[in-house]
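re: ur question from earlier - yeah i can do the single chain one, its not a big deal. heres the input i used so u can compare w yours
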Amino acid sequence: MAQAFAPSIQTSSNGPQLSRIVAGMWRMNEWNMTAQQRLAFIEECLALGVSSFDHADIYGSYGVEQLFGEALALKPELRQRIQLVSKCGIKLLSEQRPAHSIQHYDTSAAHILASVENSLRALQSDHLDLLLIHRPDPLMDYDEVARTFERLRQEGKVRHFGVSNFSRHQFDMLHRRIALATNQIEFSPLHVAPLFDETLDGLHDQGIAPMVWSPLGGGRLFSASDAQSERLRLVIKDIADQLQRPFASIVFAWIMQHPSRPLPLTGSGRIEALQVAVEATQFSLSRAQWFEILRAARGHEVA
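and the output i got, formated as tokens:
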């Protein structure tokens, strides 16, 4: 079979063009790669059509963006072919940030601006393609965030904006003030709440594609022994056998079948794992198969 190539989609009417499969960089610091190996990984992703790379300031205890930037610096012309996504708004306890006395959220203008400067310096780039507020902050001033986003856009430092882990109402509150390009949420057969709590409905209604973290349930689908995971494993394996496709491809296809056009993130440094994700862009499940997975996820039939 010819090597699959991931298509790209525009996340919203004025949003960025992202690859349908996004390479998540959360654990890059655990991959034990040299800068040259990290560069090779980026190039292998591009060969699969995976051109979007998901970061956050805090990943790797504030270290992953720098690892990626070191690799990119070995071949700076690749910057034109990739989309850099990052997040801000969480302050972690870390040796890299000795001033932090408690893990907390900060969506003040000062913190967002400083975080973007740090990310750009670490990534060795003059702009981010997409910046997300990492989690809803109880003290967030939506007007202040919108003004800060607009300033970053005018300065050319960030081209598009979004959020992560926001409810439908929280998303709409900020979207009314400044156009948002995505909401990055947790969604998988092990976490189907977004199907029923209006998160996906709201994005679909506005023509905005969600990004999806933990599509494989952090690996639980492969190994966890709880009843839900075991039910899902049997059903997904059966469908994988029917379609002659890899197990994980079935899961990615199930997620992407939602009409809101979800963009799942991978989390692996193994290029084989990305190939399996990209393969899921090449086929669909039948409705019956899709609902078999939903039934296994919930433990009961639909009404």
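The two ends are 40 Å apart (CA to CA). not sure if urs matches, ping me
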